[in-house]
Description:
Blueprint: E1 4-7, E2 10-13, E3 18-24, E4 32-39, E5 46-51, E6 58-60, E7 68-73, E8 78-83, E9 92-101, E10 115-116, E11 120-125
Parallel strand pairs: 2-11
Antiparallel strand pairs: 1-3, 3-8, 4-5, 4-9, 5-6, 7-8, 9-10, 9-11
Amino acid sequence: QVQLVESGGGLVQAGGSLRLSCAASGRTFSSRAMGWFRQAPGKEREFVAAISWSDGNTHYADSVKGRFTISRENAKNTVHLQMNSLKPEDTAVYYCAAANLAYSGSYYNTYDYNYWGQGTQVTVSS
C-alpha cells in the first residue's frame, strides 16, 4: 500500500504561483510513475501532469503546458507541482496519484494510477 498526502494548496490571485507537494509512504516511490490530476465542481477529474519513474520524463495537459512544472525528489519520497501564471480556471481540488511498480504505459487516465491522495484545494481569484 502507498499513502499519499498533498499539501500546498490555498487561495491565490490570478497571475500568482503555488507549489503543491505530495509525500508518499513506503520504499517503492522511486519505482512509481507519479501524476497530478484536478477536479473542479461539477466536472470530471482531469489529468494535469505526470512524471515517469525510469527517466524522469514529464507529461502535461495542454491547458497547463508552459505554466506548470512537475518534479520529484526520490530521496524524500516527494513529488511537486510548481504552478505559475495561475488562472481562475485552474481552480479545483488537486490530487496526487501513484501508479503500479515499474508502470510505463499511458499517464493520462485516472485508471493508469492505483493510489490517490485526499486532495488539496487550489482557488484562483480573478
